[in-house]
Amino acid sequence: MRVITGSAKGRKLETLKGEDVIRPTSDKIKESMFSAIQFYIAGAKVLDLFAGSGQLGIEALSRDASVCTFVDISREACDVIKTNLKKTELFDKARVITGDAERYVTNTKDDYDIVFIDPPYGYGTVDKFLNLIEPHMTDNGFVVCETESNCEPVVQAGALEFQKSYRHGKTMVWIYKKFPEVTI
User: Model pTM greater than 0.90?
Assistant: First the structure.
């Protein structure tokens, strides 16, 4: 697992040991995620939920996102994220939170331009998290979800609207955009 492009291009990232612990996003999937949002990353405020090794948020920081908050319930995962941030020299642009993703999203006062939601497969939380995160999204912000391929996308969650999806074997990537409310 490595950083694809940007200031940390080519740097190898650590991950937790054991396939039952973490399912790293492949470079091919990560490339499709970032190609969909590439023009919106520079200067963005990013949230990486169920962060695992932190590779999605680190990729965003490497591509000039201004800041990223990483949230994972596992203390070991958060230690790996911190190690990866130090290896990529991106630690000063990050905040790592050891805690429950739902509790964080419910209680945060922050707003985000880009949010990555990559829960463990079979966890069944993407629908719920789209609704929870929508009030914390900036206008024209993006939510990028990674799920198992048998999931059906939510068409809309508040002002978040489904934009496109990509299938990669057993994995689906869903892209949502928050449209500004139109007042007449």
Answer: yes
